[in-house]
Amino acid sequence: MFKPVVVTGLFSAACFVAADHTFNFHNQCGYTINPKIVNVNCGYSPRCKTPGSGGVPNPAISYNGPQPQSLGPNQSTTLHINRQWNGRIFHQSGSCGAKGESCTLGEFNLDTGNQFTAQAFDISNIQGFTIGLKIAITGGDSVTCTNVNCGCKNAYPPGDTSGCGTDLPVRGGSPGDKTWTVTFCP
């Protein structure tokens, strides 16, 4: 998925621009939502203590782009997010912390998406359930949690810091740039 760019003049060269992941945000709630994208690279990941693991902070793989606009009922928007981003997506209901604390979270570890390791994502209610959420990836798995009791197969339950014992809620996607769909109130 590279786009060639040709430079003309005294010399010629072909350059390649890398693409990023496409994220579609859909609001199926009966009220306006405020989706937020936050970086958590080394904010919560246990890989942060392992140099070379992809968990070391790097501004080049942080998301520094625009935040999604508030979405009214049945509205959608699309943004592009860096290909090696680690972070959270959530609805800022007014009771969430700056990184989504106390709220339902979509969690993404996209720095794992190389030729050998799948990209990982999940829904977490560990710090609190606030909204139903569905995450889907083109050509891959999806996960949905519509209520506080959706079970470990679909999301980490409130207060469970054990990771459901086996990280059962975590889904994987194949390497490469993907299109992700995050649906609020699925």
Portion of residues within helices: under 10%
Count the strands? 12
What is the CATH superfamily label?
A: Thaumatin
- Beta percentage is 25-35%
Strands side by side in the biggest sheet: 5-3-12-9-10
Biggest beta sheet summary: 5 strands, mixed
Keywords: Signal
Organism: Crepidotus variabilis
Protein name: Thaumatin-like protein
InterPro entries: Osmotin/thaumatin-like_sf
Notes on the protein architecture:
Residues 1-19 form the signal peptide. It comes from Crepidotus variabilis. With 186 residues, the chain is mainly beta. It has one domain: Thaumatin (Sandwich), CATH 2.60.110. It is 0% helix and 35% strand. The chain has no helices and twelve strands. It has strands spanning 2-7, 13-18, 21-27, 35-39, 76-81, 86-91, 105-109, 119-124, 133-137, 142-145, 171-173, 179-184. The strands form three sheets. Strands 5-3-12-9-10 form a five-stranded mixed beta sheet, with no helix packed on it. A five-stranded antiparallel beta sheet has the order 4-6-7-8-11, with no helix packed on it. The chain is globular. The two termini are 30 Å apart. The model is unreliable at 1-18, 43-47 and 49-57 (pLDDT under 50).
